[in-house]
Here is the input.
Amino acid sequence: MKINYDYCPFCEGKEFIEGKQNGHAVVRGENIFSSQILYHIICKNCGSVVHSFVKEPEKLLKKKNR
Here is the structure.
Protein backbone atom coordinates (compact mmCIF):
# COMPACT_ATOMS: atom_id res chain seq x y z
CA MET A 1 0.00 0.00 0.00
CA LYS A 2 1.45 3.36 -1.00
CA ILE A 3 0.69 6.27 1.29
CA ASN A 4 0.21 9.60 -0.46
CA TYR A 5 1.30 12.59 1.61
CA ASP A 6 0.80 15.09 -1.22
CA TYR A 7 -2.30 16.44 0.50
CA CYS A 8 -4.51 15.81 3.53
CA PRO A 9 -7.67 13.84 2.63
CA PHE A 10 -9.66 15.94 5.16
CA CYS A 11 -8.68 19.54 4.38
CA GLU A 12 -6.31 19.23 1.38
CA GLY A 13 -3.47 20.75 3.43
CA LYS A 14 0.00 20.11 2.02
CA GLU A 15 2.27 20.23 5.09
CA PHE A 16 2.75 17.37 7.54
CA ILE A 17 4.64 16.68 10.73
CA GLU A 18 5.61 13.40 12.35
CA GLY A 19 4.67 12.87 15.97
CA LYS A 20 5.16 9.92 18.26
CA GLN A 21 2.99 8.42 20.93
CA ASN A 22 4.86 6.59 23.66
CA GLY A 23 4.76 5.86 27.36
CA HIS A 24 1.55 4.02 28.20
CA ALA A 25 0.28 4.28 24.63
CA VAL A 26 2.68 1.78 23.07
CA VAL A 27 1.75 -1.03 20.70
CA ARG A 28 2.24 -4.61 21.87
CA GLY A 29 1.94 -7.72 19.73
CA GLU A 30 2.47 -11.44 20.36
CA ASN A 31 5.63 -10.68 22.32
CA ILE A 32 4.18 -9.01 25.43
CA PHE A 33 7.66 -8.04 26.62
CA SER A 34 8.39 -5.99 23.51
CA SER A 35 6.58 -2.81 22.61
CA GLN A 36 6.86 -0.25 19.85
CA ILE A 37 6.33 3.49 19.79
CA LEU A 38 3.39 4.48 17.60
CA TYR A 39 4.28 7.20 15.09
CA HIS A 40 1.72 9.47 13.43
CA ILE A 41 1.81 11.63 10.31
CA ILE A 42 -0.27 14.71 11.18
CA CYS A 43 -1.62 17.45 8.94
CA LYS A 44 -0.25 20.84 10.06
CA ASN A 45 -3.37 22.61 8.81
CA CYS A 46 -6.21 20.67 10.48
CA GLY A 47 -4.38 18.35 12.92
CA SER A 48 -5.82 15.15 11.46
CA VAL A 49 -3.77 11.98 11.80
CA VAL A 50 -3.46 10.77 8.22
CA HIS A 51 -1.26 7.73 8.94
CA SER A 52 -0.04 5.76 11.96
CA PHE A 53 2.75 3.17 12.03
CA VAL A 54 5.47 1.42 14.01
CA LYS A 55 9.00 1.47 12.61
CA GLU A 56 9.91 -2.16 13.39
CA PRO A 57 6.71 -4.27 13.23
CA GLU A 58 8.68 -7.54 13.24
CA LYS A 59 9.62 -6.87 16.88
CA LEU A 60 5.94 -7.34 17.81
CA LEU A 61 6.20 -11.04 16.93
CA LYS A 62 7.48 -13.77 19.21
CA LYS A 63 11.06 -14.72 18.34
CA LYS A 64 10.01 -18.05 16.80
CA ASN A 65 7.62 -16.22 14.39
CA ARG A 66 10.10 -13.55 13.18
In short: Strands lie at 16-21, 27-28, 35-36, 38-43, 49-53. DSSP finds no helices and five strands in the chain. The CA atoms of residues 13 and 30 lie 37 Å apart.
